[in-house]
């Protein structure tokens, strides 16, 4: 149990540092930016308390907001993603989630990709809607959501596959 908590703390800190030091400095074509810190929310253990996930997601988002001076948009998007995570898991993994037997290291790659893709689209839509906060800029919001989600999805899946222990 203690090694599991230590692993989550290391993952939490590492993803924040990677996001702030490396991924926020990638600004492809002026508006495409990967947000890989959401991997922490995706990989948080399913059997753990949901309230803990919501609180940790809020802290994760607030930490990024403090580093990036972004006024709470990351915290809001992270909490929305954490709150909707059970629905995403049920949609992507089906009966495995119902029986609480989802293991991200041994899951099928298609289920994992659909889970991360839908979650990333949701997170980015909320993030850019809160960031821009203008209904007149809906095309900009959708464009940033789509292209940043694709870039985030590719980088996130690569990171998850590279650092998983028993990938099929």
Automatic annotation (TrEMBL):
It comes from the Bacteria. This is Rod shape-determining protein MreD. Keywords: Membrane, Transmembrane, Transmembrane helix. The lineage of its organism: Bacteria, Pseudomonadati, Bacteroidota, Flavobacteriia, Flavobacteriales. The chain crosses the membrane at residues 28-44, 51-68, 109-133, 145-163. It comes from Winogradskyella pelagia.
């Amino acid at each position: 149990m203690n090694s599991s908590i230590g692993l989550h703390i290391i993952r939490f800190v590492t993803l924040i540092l990677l996001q702030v030091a490396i991924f926020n400095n990638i600004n492809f074509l002026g508006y495409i930016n990967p947000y890989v810190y959401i991997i922490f929310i995706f990989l948080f253990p399913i059997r753990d308390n949901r309230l803990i996930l919501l609180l940790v997601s809020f802290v994760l988002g607030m930490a990024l907001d403090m580093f990036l001076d972004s006024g709470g948009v990351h915290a809001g998007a992270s909490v929305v993603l954490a709150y909707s995570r059970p629905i995403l898991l049920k949609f992507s993994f089906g009966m495995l989630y119902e029986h609480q037997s989802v293991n991200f290291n041994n899951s099928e790659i298609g289920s994992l990709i659909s889970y991360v893709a839908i979650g990333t689209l949701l997170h980015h839509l909320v993030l850019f809607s809160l960031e821009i906060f203008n209904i007149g800029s809906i095309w900009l919001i959708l464009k940033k959501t789509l292209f940043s989600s694709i870039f985030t999805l590719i980088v996130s899946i690569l990171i998850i596959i590279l650092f998983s222990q028993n990938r099929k």
